[in-house]
Structure formats: C-alpha cells, structure tokens
Amino acid sequence: MTGPIARVRGNDYRTLRPEAGFTPALTVSVVVPAYGGQDKLDLVLAALARQTYPAELTEVIVVDNGSEPPLRLPGTAPKGARLIRCPEPGRAAARNAGLAEATGDVVHWLDSDVVLTPGAIEAHMRWHHTAPYLVVTGYIRFTEAELPAELPDDLETCFEPAEPHTWIVDLVERTGGLTDNPQRPFSLHVGGATSVHARLIAAAGPMDDDLVLGQDTEMGYRLSQAGAVFVPEPAARAYHLGPTMRMRDKPAIDRVSHAFVADRVPAYRWLRGHPGRQWKVPYVTAVVDGTAGYDEVRASVDALLAGTVPDLSVLVVGPWDTLRRERRAPLRDPALDLVLVEGHYRYDGRVRLAAAEDVDPAVPYVLRLPAGWVPGEDSLARLLDLARDEGLGLVNVLLSESAEGVVAARLERLSAFARARLVAGPGEDLDDVVDEVSGVTWVDGETYGFTTEAATPVGRRSAYRARAEAQAEAARLAKENERLRAQVGKWKEEAGRWRKSAVELRREVGTLRRELAAANRAAQQSLRTVVSTTMRRALRRPRD
Question: Which residue windows are coiled coil (predicted)?
Fold first, then answer.
C-alpha cells in the first residue's frame, strides 16, 4: 500500500469503499488451532484449498494443540500448508504458536470446525487492501447437518438449513453496521473467522493465555486500543460444523469469562459495579508532575482519589530514583518536596511513582492534569461522559489564560491517539489528526468544577452518614406521602358521600317542588271553585 493512509472517523469504515476488482498484493496467514476432530479439520482444509484469493499469497498453519492421536494434513489441504505442534493446552496458546510462525501481512484466525465459502478470504482481503488497521469478521452460520465424507461443491445444499450467529447479527443491526459510535465495536473480534492486519497485532500483542475463556474479546479490546477499525463483512460467509460451546451452555461460559475479562476490559462498565475495587487495567489514568511541589501535587492527587470515579490510577512522574534522604538535617534537604511526595504516596495502591510516563496502553483514557489544579468531586466523571457520548478523542480543559500562555488539562482517549499515529504523515500535528479521526473539543475548567483551592475530601464515613441521613429523610417523606395519600383518599371518600347526599337532596328538592306545584295548582283550582260558587249564589239572591 503506497501513498497516504486512508482515514476513518470513529468506526465508520464506509468511507474506505473497497474495490471489487482490486489487485491482490498482501499476503495472508491462516492460523487454524485444532484439538482432535480430524474429520472436521479435513473439511476445513479442503475449503481453504478452494479459496479464490491467490494461493501464492496465502499460507495455512495448522496448530495441533496436543491431540491424541496426533493430527495430520490430508491430501486435500492447500499446497504448502504446515502442521506445527503446541503441547501447552489452550486455544490462546495454540493461536500464539501459530502467530509466531505467521509471515503474512494479515493474520486470519480460523477455528478447526469452520468451513469457509470459496470467496471468504478474498472478501476479507479486499478490505485489508484499503487500510492497514482493520479487523474484519465474516458471517458464520451454524449447521447440524451430518458431516460429509468429502467436501461437496455446493456447500449451501449440504449445510443448510443453518442458524445465523444471532449475537453478531444483532450487534451489527442495532449499531448501523458498527458505524453509529458503538461503545464496544471490539466485541466483533471472534476467533472463528476473523482477520487482523499484522501491524495491529504487533502493536496490541498476542492473545492472553492466562485467560480461561474470553481471549477473543480481550484481544479485540487491545486491538481497539491499538487503533483498529472493526468491519463486519457479510460476503465472507462460513459454516460452523455443529453448535459452539457457548451455544450449548451460555450462562456457565459467561460466568467464567466475565470473572476474568472484567479485570482486563475496562469498557465493560457493567462488570465493574463495585464502588471501591481496583482492577488490573483501570478505566482512566491521571498523570501529574511530581516535581511541581508537595502541596500542589497533593492537592491534585488527593482530589482525584476522592472523586466519583474510583476506577482510576494516578501516575506521579518524577526523579524518584535520585532521592537520597537527608538523615541529619531533613528540613534543609533541597529535594524535600520530592521526598514528601514520595513518602506520602509510596504505599497507596492507586498511586504509582515513575521516573517517566509509561501509561498502560490498555487504559482507555488518560487525564493530564497540571499539579496544583483541583478537580471537583464529579469533574472527571463529567469529562468522561462527554468524551464517551460524543465519541471524542481529546477533551481540552481550559484552566487559565494569561499573557504567559494557556494552562489546560487534557483527557485523551488512547485508542484515538493510536489511530492518529497510524495514519499521521511526517510533521503533522497529532492533535489535528485526532480531531480528524475522532474529534477534539475545548471546555471551560470552571464550568467543570476545576479550581486551585484544595478542598477537604469527603470521607467514606461522611458520605455514608450523608447517604444514611438522605435515606432516612426519604423514608420519612415516603411515610408522610403515604399519610397524605391516605388523607386524600378519605377526603375523596367523604367528597363521594357529599356528592351522593347532594344528589339525594336534589332529588328531594325536586320532589318537594313537584308536590308544591301540585298543591299550588290544587289551591288555585279550589279558589276558582269557591269564587265561582259564591258568585252564582250571589246572583240568585233576591234584590231588595
């Protein structure tokens, strides 16, 4: 690949536009770890021999992970395929053994029970010819068809009906093909049929063979930290011969996997719900200059440790190896402030004193904070929310501005800076490239709670008491609310009775009105009768 390297923003690989008629130039190493299952392996290797990607650019490495009897390469295997042995048990160890032998520009992981359709590797490699930082995963379908003695020409007729890999399909569909700022695109890295540019693996390192399960996910996370873009490719189709172990017993598999992965993959926030635990890979590392003075360093570090982000480590940089403590006149020691910083934090499990900055590349975020500046209790959490929600690679925090210049803190997403270093040209400003591939913004430090006034950290017991008081008050208010609800219920019941009484009264009034009207009519009729009778009598009376 010559010329400038194509740049992708976030995980939106759609801008790469791979050509259907590309000219193959990159080599690919297909690594197939296997333990037993010679009948399935024979079909897998026969399918590799039928690939449309040039055979001279493809090497196949089968790793026998201690099978008894030992595995063999069948006559239908691709020309030049190699069989090596790895006695150390475990799929991660077997893959690493194959990786050590691989010479390709791209490494294609392939399980020994996954049969590729003829154009699968070509579909993978079409993407890899567009950029050197891609992880491409094909679409696997799970078949329970009876195994054929030989690989048929028509795989679909032989292996269908089959079930799709629903987890991957759902992940891709709900994230717009992993392009809608997904939080965990690295979850696409599954070892069954995934290809990775060798440059990325060199940066991320091999699989973690300390893990019992979850090696694919953990390596996918480290590939993401190295700057990877993850691409689902539906044209790279394959058939898995039978169900996977996860499909057979998912709850038990997840239970074991999560117990180990939680320590190594900070992006799985839902596995890190404990409010005070420390993890092998923290979510964020804060870097503070330890030479800035004891009071300034302590103000910044103590505020960070007391914040609402417990999943944090602090790296204090200074020449600690040069300290020679003055025993006779310690107060006149010219390095007294360094001695105080070193003595104050030497045994704190979340603080590390280092002579140079050496942040673990697996850490998602790094906060670079000038000593003496004090973040508020929730400042770091708010910055992390902003970076995550907006998919930003860098959040600059303006702390002060004067004629002497600008003082700022920086929250960096390490994966964005890794990508920027992969694609940056000579002399390019790295922040500008980060802005192009991920996004950069500035925020006001005062708005986010940064000051130069050291505050007394709120202790856990004080926080507990405040929480207990708040809970008691909430319980009291809830009880009062229930009392008022009951009172309102009584009022509603009384109002109902009043409404009923009012209706009855209206009915009685109506009846009385009708009776009164009838009485009035009767009285009037009686009066008319009396008057009429009186007048007739008067007319009949003789006149004088």
Answer: 460-522
